[in-house]
Batch of 3 targets.
Target 1
Amino acid sequence: MTETGTTTVKRGMAQMQKGGVIMDVANVEQAKVAEAAGAVAVMALERVPSDIRAAGGVARMSDPAMIKAIMDAVTIPVMAKVRIGHIAEARILEAIGVDYIDESEVLTPADDSYHINKNDYKIPFVCGCRYLGEALRRIGEGASMLRTKGEPGTGNIIEAVRHMEKVNEQISHVAGANPDQLMSISRDLRAPYDLVKQVHDLGKLPVVNFAAGGVATPADAALMMNLGADGIFVGSGIFHSENPAKFAKAIVTATAHPTDWALIAKVSENLGKPMKGIDISTLTDDEKMADRGI
Amino acid sequence: MVIGVLALQGAVSEHIKMVTACGVTPRSVKTQADLKGLDGLTIPGGESTTIRKLLVREQMLEPLKKLVQQGFPVFGTCAGLVLLAQPDLLNGLKGTVVRNGFGRQRESFETELTVKGWSKPYHGIFIRAPYLSEVQQPAEALVTLADGRIVAAQQNHVLVTSFHPELTGDTRFHRYFVEKMI
């Protein structure tokens, strides 16, 4: 019997992206630059996170025509974002046939009570997380891939670092716990018991976990890989830098060779200016995207 | 015996696990120097475009191509099939590759496969998979779907699958590579 949309093919698709860089692109031209640089996938969205911050207003799913144009222009997978809880936007992206849907806090949330029941879709989903409970709730809803939330559009890596370290510390704690403690841990994390048990048995998450939200340089990418990320999402960091093609290529190289410091030094030379960053402490609570959809 | 796993991008840890399960020492291969002293290599699933670019950047494409021509055993899955069967890449197996041949991720699937000469079926996991529309001697099809698409093939010391044995717990393809081809 032949089956599509199974948990294995949805999670497996993310496993094939490991060690790679997924780049935000706003048009066909940028998608081609990303592909030529060696991106494993592109995220098609009309405005990268820093532009969403600058523009204000409501950020929604991108124009299907723009997403389809990018799908036609590159052979690597194409992802696109929907608002948290917006099942209609998700069904529309499924109908277009994008390869992965990001239920993303970068867009303005559509539902502040519920995320999408992602188990219902043939297309896999990626979701953001800041700690293990959030990660396991998203997996419980059917996410096939995770990423740190970081603080998108800031070019500031500190939040992604916090989130990756927190998740990994909590995984170590669960893995080392006595089986008798797992139900209480599940209560404290507000996470499904069976998934806490899985993390305990596997010693890791049952899905791939990428770093996202603040990666701006090859060194940032290498930092996150050394902290245990399976791969890297770069949003504004590439196309808001002085030399996008060079930045993109350098970040791909640093992600593939995260401990080859001489090589990372070499690709970091003369890159020009990275995106201008934002100090997280200057953001008001309303401006923090990571607090959306917990 | 030491088997390398090309570790530039993709399902590397999954292949390392399979090689280890066959009782063989695995080695992550990231540079030209890592290719020295290997008894064989597996090329994991991943994005073939990305792996190809990284092979070129690391100046590994030509040395690896030379090794393949000299009879070095290589097993490639999915992206590995694309790299091994394209004449302009590693040119290790004579056949015609159709990339993303089954469609996009929505069309990714799992199914039971009949492998030539094997008594029990193999569970195939296909993710944006390529296939071979035909193979030429000395390449030989090992798994052919009902519609004629070839999804596993061998040419002497080169083994390719469209699907991902590394995503299953079934080590038969890796064992076949290690025990029969090296």
Note: Chain A touches chain B through 40 residues (CB under 8 Å).
Target 2
Amino acid sequence: MHRDPMLKESPSQTAGPYVHIGCLPNLCGIDGVYPEDLGARMYADGVRGQKITVRGRILDGTGSVVRDALVEVWQADAEGRMPGGDPRGPADPAFAGFVRRAADPETGDWTFDTVKPGRVPWPDGRLQAPHATLWIVARGINLGLHTRMYFADEDAANDTDPVLARIEHRGRVATLLAQPEGPDAYRFDIRLQGPDETVFFDV
Amino acid sequence: MGDGTFFARDRGRHPPALTPDYRTSVTRAPARAPISFPPSLSEETGPVFGHDLLGPLDADLIRNFARPGHSAIGPRIFVHGRVLDETGRGVPGALIEVWQANAGGRYRHKKEGYLAPLDPDFGGCGRTISGADGSYAFRTVQPGPYPWPNGGNDWRPAHIHFSIFGSGFAQRLITQMYFEGDPMIPLCPIVRTVPTAEGIDSLTARLDMANTLPMDMRAYRFDLVLRGRRQTLFETRPEGG
Ligand SMILES: [Fe+2]
């Protein structure tokens, strides 16, 4: 059975500069409405896998840091299972798979703790390289930007990844690689424009 | 649950990245076209939020920040509708988060400098989760229009920001709801980033006198449409399954 689209998707509008009020109210001083902000923690005690910390900044076309961005992360657990209904079986119950973070309003830095994701299958059964999906909204961004963070220390897996293989300009692959910076720590900067513009995806 | 992959996004439905009349987009719009790929499990799945997330006043912006015995100032309204997908089915379990200015057009935010006063009884955030048929509702006060720095005499029409999670991360959407009959709508550079008049119309809530609560609050009706899934297996589940 097959259904065709009959309605049209609601058009996107920018999240604007006050996105924190709705998405991270405790962070912006609106206390007491929700007990905690959504997406506060990627994992609970007892999570399986290698715990890592990712740090980064988002830069605009002038090289200025974007201080008002909101970033959401969605990724597999250490075994490559997706929380939220993986048809192959349940993910690590201590792993949420989702965090939401704001760029620091002064420095623009943002960070999250997670575990290094396992490999998720492509529709044809091949394995994708370890990656996290990132979704970025901010003032001046009209439609949320989807990108992926891969790991620079996963050369063999990256070389056969079906999504990275779609990037014809091979020099741009590097924009998707988080770089190790110390034990269990990675840096991933996102450039919205310019010669090193991050690869964004239409998924 | 990944029970079918998504229809390709009709990007002509959405604002382009670069919209120079909305000036901030000039330095934040990616210059290169996004690279497409068919959704995998990473995009077909998404975080699941249960009703246990919600507190009793989460969907009541009139009272969820108010001091005991007080309520927010402004025209009381009830906003309701359904979250649908492109195939017309209701989307159950969709987390909807909203935020808005108060009735004077002032946000409760450090970066906000408009001279209209804060309302001590209004925070400006709320959330709810759609029911089995995709229906949702929340109570609030109608927000005021406000001026914003964009190089000219630009004012935002009254609006409520919406963030919606469907069942897959590929459906993630943030948009804004406007109010039927507001003469500020066609003047706004952010509204005008939407490429079609029909698209703007679809973001405009309708006054719904039939559902107005007499002597209490007017109702506005606003439906949201998320991307739909192409069914790849036999459809054995009931509506909303
Ligand atoms: Fe706004």
Note: Chain B touches chain A through 98 residues (CB under 8 Å).
Target 3
Amino acid sequence: MSIIELKNVSVEFKQKKKPTVTAVNQVSLKVEKGDIYGIVGYSGAGKSTIVRTINLLQKPTAGDIKVNGVDFVKAGKQVIDNKKLQVERRKIGMIFQNFNLLNEISVLENVAFALKHAKLSDQELEEKCHKLLKLVDLDDKADAYPIQLSGGQQQRVAIARALANDPDILISDEATSALDPQNTQQILDLLKRLNRELGLTVVLITHEMEAVKAIANKVAVMENGHLLEKGSLKQIFLHPQAELTKQFVGGSLEAMNVLNQLNLGGLGKNEVIYQLVYSVSNVTKSIIIELYRQLGIEVSMLYGNVELLGEEPIGTLVILVKGDQAKQEEALNFFDEAGVTATKIQGSEIQND
Amino acid sequence: MISFLSKYLPNVVQLGWGGDAGWGTSIVQTIYMTWWSANFGGILGLIFGVLLVVTKDGGINPNKFWFNICDKLVSIFRAIPFIILLAFIAPFTQAIVGTQIGTTAALVPLTLGIFPFYARQVEVALEAVDKGKVEAAQSLGATNWDIIFDVYLSESRSELVRVSTVTIISLIGLTAMAGAIGAGGLGNTAISYGYNRFNNDVTLVATILVIILIFIVQVVGDYFAKKLNHQHR
């Protein structure tokens, strides 16, 4: 049984004198216990809105929501009363982009706030708080105020607070977006560790593909309120279907940056740029050389990168293929047979970006 | 010292310290009126301020009916000039404290005069609390009471002290007008014994005393507002 089940969930925002905005449109999603489920998309895609329906911070206007086997929403109507919802929410931790710690109380008191209804004795409460702070490696800051901590440390306090009631699920709403790369890495490592050690199910929303690549095992891609694609991380990376997914997976933003700086000028008539994504362990042949040998097609390499997808090395190449229409077709077929995902990159994307 | 004061401020000295018109009496009356109406008006204002924020559209327990009642009540009482309010609610005052005149009678209009002012200030202070903190608390399974006390009131406490200071200072201003219904106080001394009798020295000293009182409130308020604030490094 899935730990989180969203079925045809829609969220509409009614506005005065303006057309209704559909932030989330008929999204279905199943998260299994122990998953680290990444939801990616640009800002405004509706990814934040959809995860906030999981703990009903956002009420959906249509669809069914079931979490931990408890029905929250059926056919767009909340079927759990607010008292029960409060109890259920304690099993769904959530962390935010801006940490959202209470600034007027100490780090320890922030964690204790989450345990207000846990019916612990003062001593048990204090022990539990220290245990949680040790888990995020911040026990020495127990008496500090949040503002005295760095962003990464504040986010770790927020994680300790979110985990206070031993939740089964942790929702991360752009939790690393306000952090520098080093702190981002720390937080991601911590989430991965919690997933492994506590069996915590993590739902990770981000616009940074790097975060998803580093720890997720499943990915969903969203655009304009629609869920474009979902699947295992590897499947999405190696065989992306939607255009946006293809852009996201190949580290193509970074590639674009590089290409922009190369200042290629206009493309020639018979020149096409492709982005190739492939699993390094599967593609043993040297594809570029083979392409020339077998088909006589010339290729310039513009950008190349190999990165780890979980444990799996994934290569990204951006190449310029020279040749007429027929040659281009042949090249695409060749890539397909070799198990390489090729995406055409428009020349205009490079110049305009 | 006394002879120096008698020479330059003869009417001030003549009023004396104790007695109905004495300086000590009027200082105590002003503090008495300020203290009690600050307490009553403060509690009332806090309740209304919290209700406004909680029942507002997008608040933690939206309720159009209660929001409108609170909102209109606050707006109406704010709109009535204090000196008119004094007369307007005289029968109500009579019913509550049994008399329409005197220092204690003044507490009723002072409370009703100051609470809407404070309620609006509290509303603004609570609105300034980051919505994200409220959401985070909700995601932790906090009840609405938890959110009111541990998020809204606790997080805005420094700002609440600041607006309370402003409110008390306004209130000291209102107590001066309460002299109109025989409530005494420094304001009354300045008008009745100073201005009306052409004793400018009395008006001057009463004014200086009011300024000192306000100054003390300001300094104490600033001190606590700063001490209670951990939002900045």
Note: Chain B touches chain A through 25 residues (CB under 8 Å).
